[in-house]
Amino acid sequence: MTGSTQHITVSVLAFGPLSERLGGREHTYELPGTTTVRELIEQVGLSEWISFGLTVAINGERCDVNTVLSNGCEVALLPPVSGG
Question: What's the pLDDT tens digit per position in 29-42?
């Protein structure tokens, strides 16, 4: 199909304050097939967390924010650990 954009579906698990910001822990998004982790984070309104030390895992494996997402993957968004 020339000219059409293939879409993917990804599951997002958000933890801690990220879950609160997104209004729940589990979400599903339909995205263009070339979407990176960074673009997903920006789309859901969590861009500032990248500079705060956000950890991201795809299907249980830590990854870089420039990783391209694939159909059916599970993206975990983990805020930096703090406390004392």
Answer: 999 999 999 999 99
Structural domain tally of the chain?
1
Continuous H helices in 14-53: 17-22, 37-43, 48-52
Contact between 58 and 26 under an 8 Å Cβ cutoff? The reply is: no
Confirm whether 83 is domain-assigned.
no
Annotate 21-34 with b (16+ C-beta within 10 A) or e (fewer).
Answer: ebeeeebebebeee
pTM above 0.85, yes or no: yes
